[in-house]
Amino acid sequence: MTCKRIPAVLASLAALAGVALAPSARADGYIISSGGLARSCYMAARLGRATAESVDQCTASLANDPLDLRDRAGTFINRGTLRLHQKAWVLALADFDAAIALQPKIGEGHVNRAAALIGLARPAEAVAASDLGLSLNPSEPEKAYFNRATARELTGDVEGAYRDYMKAVELAPGWDPPKLELKRFTVTPK
Fold it and tell me: b/e for 88-106, b at 16 or more Cβ within 10 A?
């Protein structure tokens, strides 16, 4: 099998560099058991409500709420997710790194870290972060495959990107973003 991207789209992607692709990376909030500001932070991340107020709620929760280790890591993931929506890649990466330092076995921290790395035009590192996230069984593995596909495409691994977009569709057939990406590919037998 040989995969190729549709040339017109490829030209526009190259012109926009890695930053324009970063919004294609996927991340969502991490469920926490605490209430209060930490819960508000999670809901904002889950719903994509990335306002200055929602980021401040996350920050206040981290500073003031008595969170257990898991919920503290989850709140860093949620604040990082909001920062991804704001395209604050460096701040998002710092939050995911803080979460991973606290709870290295939460797959979502690594999956979302991959999204930040894509935004920072560091696709090889994003592939590695996605691989690690997948090995830790994240709750939404289709997003890890989507992020890895995006990163692989940026590294020139078109066939790997195609396979990962296909896997994302297989895992979440009702989710449209990977289907849209697949429209840019043509597959020919070898």
Answer: bbebbbbbbebbbebbeeb
